[in-house]
Specification:
Helix content: over 70%
Number of domains: 2
Radius of gyration: 17 Å
Structural class: mainly alpha
CATH topology of the largest domain: Tetracycline Repressor, domain 2
Strand content: under 5%
CATH architecture of the largest domain: Orthogonal Bundle
Length: about 180
Amino acid sequence: MKRRTAQEILADSFREIAAVKSINKITIQEIVDNCGYSPATFYRNFKDKYDLIAWEHTRDVAEIMDRTGKQDDPWKQTLLDGARRFDAEKAYLANLFQHTSGHDSFVRYMVDINQNALKNHILSVCGKSDLDKKEELYLRIYCLGTVNLTCEWILGRFDASPEEIAEVYERSLPEPLQKYLF
């Protein structure tokens, strides 16, 4: 039996509260009271609730990326898995986007997390120690576009299925990066 870490328990507690309350109004005390931990335990694991959010997003992206290459159509399936996860968590993610101070900085942080995860995957596939400057720029613009599109989708600015979103992600991958992912 796998034991849950304090980080996982705190993240679950935060999500439970976020299901009924705006994220900008959630306090550390509420998070720890909800799961029976002390504030000291929270601060041993996270510097603030935004650090908790970032940790959870990083973990989720890594989980999806770790499955890449283990299916018949790896990149396409990875994109679909990501779109389905976002679709299942639309209410929580919309709460994040709408009720965090510094929405733009949160989006930039998501871009950085996604870019690092994708870069690490590409480097492991191609056996290089680093991407060249142009590949880095293509990767950056791809992550900027997909994260912003995801935010707009989650916030209901357009209607699309996870399959349609995954197809757009797949078809918008810059050609210089396709050799690593297709």
